[in-house]
Amino acid sequence: MSDSVHKALWERLELDVEAHEALLAVLGKFYGDIYLSQEGRLQGAEYLDFVLSEVHGLRIQEIQDAKATGKKVVGTFCVFVPEELTLAAGAIHVGLCAGAKAGSEKAETILPRSTCDLIKSFVGFKLARLCPYIESCDLIVGETTCDGKKKAYEAFGASVDAMHVLEVPHCKMPSDRALFRSEVVRYKEALEKLTGNTITAAALHEATITVNAKRRALQRLARLRAADPAPISGRDALLVNQISFYDDPTRFTDKINVLCDEIETRIAKGEGVAKAGTPRLLLAGCPMAVPNWKLPYIVESSGAVIVGEESCIGERNTRDLVDVTKTDLDGLLDALTDRYMKIDCACFTPNTERLEHIAALARELKADGVIHYGLLFCQPYAHEAFKVGKAMTEAGVPYLSIETDYGMEDMGQLKTRVEAFVETLS
Amino acid sequence: MTETAGLDIGSRSIELVVRRNGATVGQSRLPTTFDPLSQLRALFPDGPPARLAVTGYGRELARELCPQARTITEIKAHALGAARIFPEARTLLDIGGQDTKAVALLPGGKVGRFEMNDRCAAGTGKFLEYTATVFGLSVEEFGRLALRGDTPPRISSMCTVFAETEATTLMARGVSAANIALGLHQAIVSRTLSLLARVGLTAPVVFVGGVAKNPCVCRLLTETLGASPLVPEEPDMTGALGAALWLETTTP
Question: Domain-by-domain residue ranges, chain A?
Answer without folding.
Answer: 4-205
